[in-house]
Every structure is written in structure tokens, then in C-alpha cells.
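Task: sequence design from structure.
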């Protein structure tokens, strides 16, 4: 049996991950505590997820693919698996709720942005970039630490990421880096696992 960091047992099934996130959200009274609990669970899943589970998710040809794994019946959380070909990435965007992003396979680049003004013009500037490899887990927590983009920084490897959000994200905003202006976008899924929707 694989072990996650330290002596904590890894999580190797989606069903167990869903049950443990459900329990953490039900028992943690503060949102930040819930977020930290979900981070630990995603770390354990990243450590134990089998290749056979990930093999069912195909990458998209024109853009990264989005696969809905679970949407909580009370809209307290959702889980998605995203598959990225080399070079595929998101535009700058935000989220309506907290999020935990785990790299399951491959290498991803995460860039955070902040509003700025250059020559009297509103814009968004990159303030932090980091590379995540398999097992790396990060968070988004609106309204702070939320404007970001991500892409597969590998030249030849597919990357797979797990995303846990504090709701089923139906709408969000995409941002123009040069003007800072935003436009609404609607979430779409390439596949929805059987039983994922309540």
C-alpha cells in the first residue's frame, strides 16, 4: 500500500475521496478549516490514485478536457478531473468559491495575477508563477488569491489535475490581461461520470 506524506494512508478510490470530503465539509465549522482539510485529502488522493482510474479521461484536441466526477446534492462541493495536452492552458479566470487544485500526473504552471495600472491603463500583471508536479496541491480562495491561469508546461507529456471546488462552478469570469476587463463564461464538461450529478 502506498503511503502519503508521513504515515497517513493514501486514498485510491474516488468513492472514498467523495466520502471523506463530504465528512470534512460537514464537520469543519470554519471555511478555512474546510479548505485545509480538503487540501490534505487531495494530497492523499494524488498519492494513491491508480493509473487505471485516470486512463478513462481523454485529452481534448482543441483545448484541455473537463470531466465532472461529482457534484454534491447540497452544492457544498464538486470534483473535476482535467486533462491537458502539452501547451494547453486556461485564460486568466476566477472562481465563485474556494478551490483545491492537485496535480495527479505531469507538470503544470500556475500563474497568479493582480490588478495594476500602467501608463494610466488598467491591466492585470503576473505576480507569482510556480510549477506543480505530481503530488503538488494548491488553493484558490476568493476574493484574494483568485485571478490565475494554468497550463501544461511540458513539451511532450500529458498532465492531469484534480479540482475540488466549494460549489458546482456553473459560471465564472475570464479576464483580459491588457485591459483588466472581464466577461462571463459558462462551465462545460467533456464528460460527466455516471452518478456524478444529484
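Answer:
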Amino acid at each position: 500500500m502506498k503511503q502519503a506524506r508521513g504515515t497517513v494512508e493514501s486514498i485510491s478510490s474516488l468513492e472514498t475521496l467523495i466520502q471523506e470530503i463530504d465528512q470534512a465539509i460537514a464537520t469543519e465549522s470554519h471555511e478555512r478549516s474546510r479548505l485545509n482539510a480538503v487540501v490534505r485529502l487531495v494530497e492523499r488522493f494524488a498519492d494513491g490514485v491508480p493509473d487505471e482510474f485516470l486512463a478513462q479521461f481523454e485529452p481534448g484536441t482543441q483545448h484541455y478536457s473537463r470531466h465532472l466526477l461529482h457534484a454534491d446534492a447540497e452544492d457544498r462541493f464538486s470534483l473535476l478531473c482535467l486533462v491537458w495536452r502539452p501547451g494547453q492552458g486556461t485564460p486568466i479566470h476566477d472562481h465563485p468559491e474556494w478551490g483545491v487544485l492537485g496535480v495527479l500526473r505531469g507538470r503544470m504552471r500556475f500563474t497568479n495575477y493582480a490588478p495594476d495600472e500602467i501608463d494610466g491603463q488598467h491591466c492585470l500583471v503576473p505576480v507569482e508563477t510556480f510549477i506543480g508536479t505530481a503530488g503538488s496541491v494548491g488553493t484558490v480562495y476568493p476574493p484574494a488569491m483568485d485571478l490565475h491561469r494554468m497550463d501544461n508546461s511540458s513539451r511532450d507529456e500529458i498532465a492531469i489535475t484534480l479540482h475540488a471546488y466549494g460549489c458546482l462552478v456553473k459560471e465564472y469570469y475570464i479576464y483580459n490581461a491588457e485591459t483588466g476587463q472581464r466577461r462571463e463564461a459558462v462551465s462545460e464538461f467533456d464528460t460527466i461520470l455516471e452518478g456524478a450529478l444529484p
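Residues 70 and 196 are 4 Å apart (CA to CA).
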